[in-house]
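To the wet lab folks,

You asked to see what we're planning to order before we commit. Fair enough. Below is the target structure as tokens, and below that is the sequence we designed to fit it. If anything looks off to you, flag it before the synthesis order goes out.
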């Protein structure tokens, strides 16, 4: 990028050594340091993102100038497209060939390793969550949705089911626990076993059961999920919502 070494040191000092204050009841606490450095969505993180993207762009152009990376042309005399950057994503473009695909893959590995060495952050295949939804590079399994099941379970355990009538439990299920998996469903199809487990949690809570004791279910759950106009209670089966 051509930046002086002093500027790079100043940027890294802002990223590596970070102190925060928390506002509680209108008063700021004492400053404290963090071990992980700057967090995402800090004001400085946006500028850091721009710097990293600019460095990445220069590196791609360097590989193109060395005729290693062969970008695509929009037409015979049109623009040459090698990469497109977005807010939180990027698109890499090259000729359609196994050799170019391998070059792009090797380049990304080298770039990731270089960033890891500079920032001191280890490489990982687990990208965590974004807005509560796991970022997956592989097919999901039941363990992938353990956090979703735990979230519903914690909500149900926090409510004292025996203190509510059947009508009260029905309202809580429809308004809260049945809506928790809706957002993950927009990006990932839940496994059938996960849907059954979610229905089981709601079903046991509705009939007054808990982890230690099961209560008698007065009707089948699929009957309770029928519309009220057809004699049901208006619950929604997770499988049908998925």
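Sequence we intend to order:
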């Amino acid at each position: 990028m051509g930046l002086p070494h002093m500027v790079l040191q100043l940027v890294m000092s802002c990223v590596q050594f970070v102190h925060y204050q928390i506002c509680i009841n209108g008063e700021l606490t004492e400053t404290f340091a963090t071990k992980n450095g700057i967090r995402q969505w800090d004001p400085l993180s946006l500028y850091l993102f721009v710097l990293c993207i600019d460095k990445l762009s220069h590196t791609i152009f360097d590989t193109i100038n060395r005729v290693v990376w062969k970008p695509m042309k929009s037409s015979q005399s049109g623009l040459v497209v090698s990469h497109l950057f977005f807010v939180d994503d990027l698109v890499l473009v090259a000729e359609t060939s196994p050799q170019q695909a391998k070059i792009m893959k090797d380049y990304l590995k080298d770039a990731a390793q270089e960033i890891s060495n500079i920032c001191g952050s280890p490489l990982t295949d687990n990208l965590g969550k974004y807005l509560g939804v796991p970022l997956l590079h592989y097919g999901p399994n039941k363990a992938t949705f353990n956090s979703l099941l735990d979230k519903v379970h914690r909500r149900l355990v926090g409510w004292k089911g025996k203190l509510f009538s059947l009508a009260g439990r029905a309202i809580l299920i429809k308004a809260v626990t049945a809506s928790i998996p809706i957002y993950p469903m927009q990006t990932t199809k839940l496994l059938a076993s996960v849907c059954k487990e979610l229905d089981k949690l709601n079903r046991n809570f509705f009939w007054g059961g808990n982890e230690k004791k099961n209560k008698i279910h007065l009707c089948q759950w699929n009957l309770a999920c029928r519309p009220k106009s057809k004699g049901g209670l208006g619950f929604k089966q997770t499988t049908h919502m998925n």
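Structural context that might help your review: The mean pLDDT is 78. The chain has nine helices and ten strands.

Thanks,
Computational group
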